[in-house]
Design brief:
heterodimer, A: 327 residues, alpha/beta, Rossmann fold, 2 domains, 5-stranded parallel beta sheet, 4-stranded parallel beta sheet, 12 helices, 9 strands, B: 431 residues, Urease, subunit C, domain 1, TIM Barrel, 11 helices, 22% strand
Chain lengths: 327, 431
């Protein structure tokens, strides 16, 4: 494993499987009555959030606490871009405080890479979502969720599985991270969006694209609906919310087009009635709440591996664990 | 004038055969082989060095008044002299904006006081660069600064009527409008070239069409009203095609390209290092090759640096928060050698044409861009085209360090710069 997690494009197939397999072990911890490991005792992890995101921050915080790390939440909303304290000074401050890892969420694409490449701080940097660039732990938890349903088992990948990602791909860090990771794991990804919300140059990405949602659903093993902000229609990306929902929303008719085993996923927060009909979000086809639970396990695995997890994650565990570490 | 007279030994004028050049009282007095040294003359060993007319930059941000933390007229002209320039044109986007006779005269006076190279102020086209109301162009033209080039650079004169009127109005005093071609609506929040790389990096795109659509409109406007148009910093292959077409019609249109657009591409942005953030943005390799070809065949008339100094804090930050621009005066000639001369696209005579004679002609600045011949003002550069070395920003005279070439091996080095016979740079150092 590298020292930082900035982009899923940096992960080899072996890296990705190691994270997913480690996350399986972490998931076991969450089923215990004492949901805690001593692994990161004495290590300091800072959650540096320049952008509000209660769900992602909470997920990281739970993961860090289950690993017994000392957790510091550093909320710096808007500070640099609005010309307050600079990212550099914030980083120098965290370095002086002895941060072993910094989990950064920022509205500016590239801020985590800037931090990782700088000499401002020496700890590991984990990208918790940067602008419209990437959100690697989200993609990892999505892949973890897909694997547990579509090809369960330690060391398994997603070869041949078909994943359809629908919505505002242009502005989606989740889509970018998922395309890289799912491709690395062997899945076939199809992006579906109106042409206005498709990124420039998407034809060079390792995936298929389509403007027609119905056609992309019939063979999908999983469909992932992306959030579409209503404000986009003011910038003429689409005419009205109703038209968007008609053409790209997941409703009961479209659900029926999906194979029976197909998963309905959403990275949250959902705009019910916009990209997904409320009843579908609540149906047993949806694994949206499961994604949230898996987020904690995956983030535990990432932090454990980045912060020098050369020993088994769970020291008391079975032969299964040591086999994994032998790989 | 009590300047030292010089005898330059063995310089290759425009890359030709070695000659001696005698400089007397600020003029080129004699050119020939084995000239005899006279009393009081300082001999300059220039064997093997290329002699070029002093370079003229039509596009320089000197930042004074207002952003003296980034650059002053003094530090900027020192940087210019080190880069081989004997005249620079100071862009109008200062604080306050150079949109009145008072501000352009201030910049002009600061240039005279610096003494390192001549400073010709450019006046704003519109009040405050707002694009709404014409600035007092006539007053700036009639001022001591004698402004002839007008530009809202940094912003586009996007209102078609304002642009038309400006093009027409400056005809009264032989002026020219230098347009920063950027359609504002198509580039709201734009961070880098719109292409494959921007899509992957999740940075808002600055599409080529935003430049090309304005250039297309402006060449048509210039033709319609019979005016002269200069297009700043061409950056796309499509822009080249439009300029080529307009010139083919015989319209009075000139265009410039920056050194960085001749060498660098948007692939560099993958680092998210804001030193590569510039406006117009770095484009693709296909664009770079088209720009080189156009500069070589004369479709693009000149190289202009768009030297844009910024303090460290405006670059050592998130990409989207960073300022746009690169310093360029001290590396311009080396970059042009790398992109144009070493590639066989141009010789040194063409370099002199595009970095001295033509920019001086577009601006009408007197005494610059003249040939290296007897009786002409001794504005000269001696350049060692055999030198190879890594760019070291710590050696720069500019106040800022935002160079994209840090550590890059670039060919060539300015050895000496003479302004009206006076040595401003010798052995690569300011005198």
């Amino acid at each position: 494993m590298k020292r930082h997690l900035i982009s899923t494009a940096d992960l080899t197939r072996e890296d990705a499987l190691l994270i997913l397999d480690t996350a399986e072990q972490m998931a076991q911890v969450s089923t215990r009555s004492v949901k805690k490991l001593p692994t990161l005792r004495g290590r300091t992890v800072v959650n540096l959030f320049f952008e509000d995101s209660t769900r992602t921050r909470t997920s990281f915080e739970v993961a860090e606490k289950r690993l017994s790390a000392d957790v510091i939440n550093f909320s710096a909303k808007g500070s640099s871009v609005s010309k307050g304290e600079s990212l550099k000074d914030t980083a120098l401050t965290l370095q002086a405080m002895g941060a072993d890892a910094v989990v950064i969420r920022h509205s500016a694409s590239g801020a985590p890479k800037l931090l990782a490449d700088s000499d401002w701080l020496h700890g590991s940097v984990v990208n918790a979502g940067d602008g419209t660039h990437e959100h690697p732990t989200q993609a990892l938890l999505d892949a973890f969720t897909m694997r547990s349903h579509l090809n369960p088992g330690v060391g398994h990948d997603l070869v041949g599985r078909r994943v359809t990602i629908v919505g505002d791909v242009l502005h989606s860090r989740v889509a970018r991270s998922n395309v890289h990771l799912l491709h690395t794991l062997g899945a076939e990804v199809t992006l579906v969006a109106p042409p206005t919300l498709m990124p420039f140059g998407v034809e060079t990405w390792p995936c298929q694209t389509s403007y027609d949602l119905d056609a992309a659903l019939t063979k999908a093993d999983a469909v992932m609906m992306l959030r579409v902000q209503r404000e986009r229609m003011n910038a003429a990306y689409f005419p009205t919310q109703r038209e968007y929902t008609r053409r790209y929303g997941l409703d009961a008719r479209r659900l029926a087009l999906l194979p029976q085993h197909a998963l309905v996923m959403h990275p949250g927060p959902m705009v019910r009635g916009m990209e997904i009909e409320s009843s579908i979000a609540d149906s047993d086809r949806a694994v949206i709440v499961e994604q949230v639970a898996n987020g904690v396990s995956v983030r535990m695995a990432v932090l454990y591996l980045l912060l020098g997890g050369s020993e088994p994650a769970i020291t008391t565990s079975s032969a299964n664990t040591s086999e994994e570490n032998g790989k | 004038m009590s300047t030292t007279n010089h005898l330059i030994r063995g310089a290759r004028i425009l890359g030709g055969d070695p000659q001696d050049i005698r400089i007397t009282d600020g003029l080129i007095a004699e050119i020939g082989a084995n000239l005899e040294a006279r009393d009081g003359e300082q001999e300059i060993a220039a064997e093997g060095l290329i002699a070029l007319p002093g370079l003229v930059d039509l596009h320089t941000h000197l930042r004074e008044p207002g952003r003296e933390d980034a650059e002053t007229v003094l530090t900027g002209t020192k940087a210019a002299a080190k880069g081989g320039f004997t005249a620079v044109h100071a862009m109008a986007n200062t604080f306050p904006v150079a949109d009145t006779a008072g501000v352009v005269e201030q910049v002009w006076r600061l240039g005279r006081e610096s003494g390192y190279c001549d400073v010709q102020p450019i006046g704003a086209v519109t009040v405050g660069l707002e694009g709404k109301q014409l600035a007092e162009l006539g007053a700036m033209a009639d001022s001591a600064a004698q402004v002839r080039v007008f530009s809202d650079d940094g912003k586009c004169v996007d209102d078609a009527v304002i642009m038309r009127r400006a093009l027409e109005y400056v005809k009264a005093f032989g002026g020219v409008i230098a347009q920063h071609a950027q359609e504002p609506r198509l580039t709201e929040g734009a961070q880098m070239n719109e292409g494959v790389v921007s899509g992957e990096l999740g940075l808002a795109g600055w599409p080529a069409v935003a430049e090309e659509s304005i250039i297309a409109r402006d060449v048509l406007l210039a033709a319609h009203v019979g005016s002269r148009l200069h297009v700043c910093h061409l950056s796309t292959a499509g822009s080249v095609e439009i300029i080529r077409w307009a010139k083919g019609k015989g319209w009075d249109v000139t265009a410039e390209v920056t050194p960085h657009h001749l060498l660098l591409t948007d692939e560099l942005v993958r680092s998210y290092d804001a030193v590569y953030k510039v406006n117009p943005p770095l484009r693709t390799e296909a664009d770079v090759l088209a720009l080189r070809e156009a500069l070589a065949d004369g479709t693009i008339d000149i190289v202009a640096t768009d030297h844009a100094p910024h303090p460290a804090e405006d670059k050592q930050c998130e990409w989207s928060a960073a300022a746009m621009g690169m310093v360029g005066l001290e590396t311009a000639l080396s970059v042009v050698q790398s992109a144009m001369v070493d590639t066989g696209l141009m010789g040194w005579a063409e370099v002199a044409q595009r970095m001295s004679a033509k920019p001086a002609a577009i601006s009408g600045i007197p005494g610059h861009g003249r040939p290296v011949s007897v009786g002409e003002p001794a504005n000269l550069v001696l350049f060692d085209d055999q030198y190879r070395g890594a760019v070291n920003p710590d050696s720069f005279a500019t106040r800022s360090r935002n160079t994209p070439y840090r550590g890059m091996d670039l060919p060539g080095r300015v050895v000496a710069t003479f302004l009206r016979g006076e040595a401003k740079v010798l052995d690569g150092e300011l005198v």
